[in-house]
Specification:
Blueprint: H1 3-23, H2 29-34, H3 36-59, H4 68-80, H5 87-111
């Protein structure tokens, strides 16, 4: 794996960790929805995850990131359709998808 790809994978891992920091390690949808600062911070981290995923796949499409297209699509929605971001969908990503992605990134980085 190239250093460039490794850096982007690290960026994805750090963005996931930052989401935990923004949420205070809590998983309370009502707190998330009530705090625009937290929502915007999480959305920014999702943008980073999506952009880094896109860059990885452009350089090396053999890197297996599950649901990569959906990750990139979410990034595009947050950036380009910011007024149509659904908090429920973002919350579902936080709960269901990020833990698996976090482990997948760790595994990819451990292989190299």
């Amino acid at each position: 794996m190239s250093e460039e790809v490794r850096k982007w994978l690290i960026d994805i891992g750090e963005a996931i960790e930052n989401i935990d920091v923004h949420l205070g390690r809590k998983r309370d949808f009502s707190l998330y929805q009530a705090n625009i600062t937290i929502r915007r911070a999480v959305e920014r981290e999702l943008e980073i995850i999506g952009e880094a995923t896109n860059r990885v796949l452009k350089v090396d499409n053999t890197i297996g990131i599950t649901d990569a297209r959906r990750i990139i699509d979410l990034r595009n929605r947050v950036i380009h359709a910011y007024d149509a971001v659904d908090d429920v969908i973002v919350w579902g990503v936080i709960l269901k998808n990020l833990p698996a992605l976090k482990q997948e990134i760790r595994d990819l980085l451990a292989v190299d």
